[in-house]
Amino acid sequence: LEYAELELRYQDSDYLEDRISCNHGESLLFHLINRRNEIKADYFWQLPLISELPSNLRENIRQARNFSETIHGAFLLYNFLLARKLENEELINRYDNMLEEWQDKIKERWNNLKYWQQHLDDFWNSKPFHTANVGPSTRSFVSQWLELIFPGREINNLQTSESAHRLIASREKEKKGSRARLHNLQALEMWGGSSGTAQLDFRWGVVETICEDIISGLQREEK
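Request: output the structure for the sequence above.
Response:
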């Protein structure tokens, strides 16, 4: 084939919307399709319709956003430490700047995020975690990471925080064992200069595509 495309017919999209409504009528996916709203955004919590959603769904989205924004610093610090271990000045400066930008974003929402960190049990007890397989070591890492970010009235300088560096190195060792780049020079030399630096979006890009396909089909006249 020289050309191929996939466009849902009206009856296809209508069927999918019905199935989503029956089985996941309380989900964000259902509301996105049912309301036919514009869904273009970098992250789903930026969508205007969020304020119109049921309170329990808004709370889950708030929890997701706060976790995404705070844990992003751990991804960046890991890459910063790899660059420093490799003694690559260009990469060191790149991740130093990215960490500075991340810290500025945290400061912009400081009061909200610090309050969230102080009530972290609400996060661990939120509905998505009833089905998610989150082990005790991950919970411990996240809790320790947040304690490093919010020690007092202002954020730690993570680039110079030995406690933060030890936490990241320990976590990598726990997850990767002998392949941990911060402990294995051969593994470090195979690093491509970037490892998971994107902010967690919970596969929002995939959801956008699914919603756009279904909504486009619903907007077609039935033939």
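The radius of gyration is 21 Å.
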